[in-house]
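User: Hi! I'm working on a homework problem where we have to compare a predicted structure to a textbook description. Could you give me the structure for the chain below?
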Amino acid sequence: MSLELSKKAAAVKPSSTLAITAKAKELRAQGKDVVGFGAGEPDFNTPQNICDAAIACPFFVDAPSGEISVAFRIFDFLRFIENLEVAHEFQ
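Assistant: Happy to help. Predicted structure tokens:
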């Protein structure tokens, strides 16, 4: 029995992000100094001035219709993980 992919599955293109990540890994293996901007976390910490500006700046999380629970989960994450006080208002 042979299996065939559906037309939709066969039309899926390879991930550009994974290709970039693979290229960065290949270059590192060649001994080149590479900063990866592909999949995962960056290879460096966020500069302190950016962190300070982000903390000082009020921000707004828009909850799409029916997705207020998602916004509350984001607030819980910010409170627990980042130790930030988050105010919220939905109309």
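For your comparison, note the following. The first helix runs from residue 7 to 11. Helices lie at 7-11, 16-29, 48-56, 68-80. Good luck with the assignment!
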